[in-house]
Design goal:
This protein is α/β, with parallel strands linked by helices and 305 residues long. It has a single domain, classed as NAD(P)-binding Rossmann-like Domain (Rossmann fold), CATH 3.40.50.720. It contains 10 helices and 13 strands. A 7-stranded parallel beta sheet has the order 3-2-1-4-5-7-11, sandwiched between helices. Strands 6-13 form a two-stranded parallel sheet. Strands 8-10 form a two-stranded parallel ribbon. Strand 1 (9-13), helix 1 and strand 2 (33-38) form a beta-alpha-beta unit. The two termini are 36 Å apart.
């Protein structure tokens, strides 16, 4: 399997975020240089250089010599899915990526990255029920599926610029210091945890360490392009996830959130993020020869708690 030789100069959006900051630490430790793009004054924990994005045109990344660009920035999916929230989600992912790729076309060819790794989500598959889905499976239905499909299409416009494009279809990323796990740990630690709805919806998850290592391996492996599922090889139902987390924390999990209450409070977010899910498998990661540090949920929770 052919990989890119030597240390690369990697541009990174979302460098101060949960996944971005840990990816930067890993890539830097493997001998790559990190150029962090930032919209605010917050400094990336690990960066060889930080470039500020123009406040009124954040997609116009300051030009510099790059071998690869990892684009992870986007509006959080958490919160009430009002019309305004949905608009921000779409614009920060689809419209922003379209503008970003267009801007990269104005760069000098010798400076333009050869690889674009762009975030996406397992929501691409919609609510797949118990059916196993992998990178060859068709897109599903719903707002998140539309966003992910539009996001990936926008990223693939970079192929016309001679760039290899990788789309990261990310499941729930479990880490100590970010994502959903800290909140889940507090709730379950108080004995207030429980399943969501009937608990039969499938959850694709991945430990943070595995997520950033697969990301880097996909970036470094020249034959990899298109979608890559960032998920562990053993998806679980919400009921099983609940049982395993409660066991890891040695707490009961008697409570459960009725579907009607979640829909009443959270509107569309409940149906697409909490009451439905995907039984996704990491076929491409396996074909790359990646060996998971945390292939099963009990082991992942043991490492986290």
């Amino acid at each position: 399997m052919k990989t890119l030789e030597g240390g690369m100069r990697i541009g990174l959006t979302g460098a101060t975020g949960f996944i971005g900051s840990h990816f930067a630490l890993l890539a830097h430790g493997r001998g790559h240089q990190i150029v962090a793009y930032s919209r605010g004054q917050k400094e990336a924990p690990v960066a060889d250089e930080t470039l500020r994005q123009p406040p009124q045109a954040a997609h116009a990344l300051p030009e510099t010599k790059l071998d690869a660009l990892v684009h992870l920035a986007g509006e959080s999916l958490m919160g009430l899915w009002t019309a305004e929230k949905r608009d921000r989600i779409w614009k920060s992912r689809v419209d922003f990526t379209e503008a970003l790729v267009t801007h990269l076309g104005t760069w000098k060819e010798e400076n333009r990255p050869k690889v674009l790794v762009c975030a996406s989500g397992a929501g691409f598959y919609g609510d797949s029920g118990p059916e196993i889905v992998d990178e060859a499976s068709p897109r599903g239905a719903g707002f998140l599926a539309d966003v992910c499909a539009g996001w990936e299409k926008a990223a693939h416009r970079a192929e016309a610029l001679g760039m290899r494009v990788v789309n990261l279809r990310t499941g729930m990323v479990l880490g100590r210091n970010g994502g959903a796990f800290p909140l889940l740990r507090r709730v379950f630690g108080l004995g207030l945890g429980g399943r969501l709805g009937n608990g039969r919806q499938w959850m694709s998850w991945i430990h943070l360490n595995d997520a950033v290592q697969i990301l880097l391996k996909a970036l470094e492996t020249e034959r990899v392009s298109g979608p890559v599922n960032l998920c562990a090889p053993e998806a679980v139902t919400n009921a099983e996830f609940t049982r395993q987390l409660a066991a890891a924390l040695h707490r009961p999990a008697f409570f459960h959130a009725p579907a009607f209450a979640l829909r009443l409070i959270l509107r569309g977010m409940a149906d697409e993020m909490l009451l439905s899910g995907q039984r996704a498998m990491p076929r491409v990661a396996t074909e790359m020869g990646y060996a998971f540090e945390h292939p099963d949920l009990p082991g992942a929770f043991a490492a986290l708690v």
